[in-house]
């Protein structure tokens, strides 16, 4: 099973990294909550694009956060 436990302040967070492990670890209610959260984020990003607002993103290759402006310009955050 591909999972790990990370400490975040006084809390322990279980991180599941594979779909197979997720089906054995995460309850159906948690799966539904994850599905709804992903849909809410997609909707918020779509709305921000329509309203020409900047969107915060993360570049996996450079391992840096950036803000993408409405005109497509990326401004990396230090």
Care to describe what's here?
With 78 residues, the chain is α+β, with helices and mostly antiparallel strands. It has one domain. 38% of the residues lie in helices and 32% in strands. It has two helices and five strands. The protein has a three-stranded antiparallel beta sheet. It has a two-stranded antiparallel sheet with strand order 1-2. It is extended, with a radius of gyration of 16 Å.
Number of domains: 1
Determine the strand fraction and express it as a percent band. 25-35%
Shape: extended
Overall pLDDT level: 90
Distance from N terminus to C terminus (CA atoms, Å) equals 35 Å
Structural classification: alpha+beta
Gyration radius, in Å: 16 Å
DSSP strand count: 5
Low-confidence stretches: none
The portion of residues assigned to helices is 25-40%
Strand order of the largest sheet: 3-4-5
Can you count the helices? 2
| Sheet of most strands | 3 strands, antiparallel
* Quaternary form: single chain
Q: SSE string, helix = H, strand = E?
A: EEHHEEE
Précis, in short:
The protein has 78 residues and is an alpha+beta fold. Helix content is 38%, strand content 32%. It is built from 2 helices and 5 strands; from the N terminus they run ββααβββ.
List keywords for this structure.
alpha+beta; 3-stranded antiparallel sheet; two-stranded antiparallel ribbon
Q: In terms of topology, how is this protein built?
A:
Elements lengths: L2 E6 L2 E6 L2 H7 L2 H23 L4 E5 L4 E5 L5 E3 L2
Antiparallel strand pairs: 1-2, 3-4, 4-5
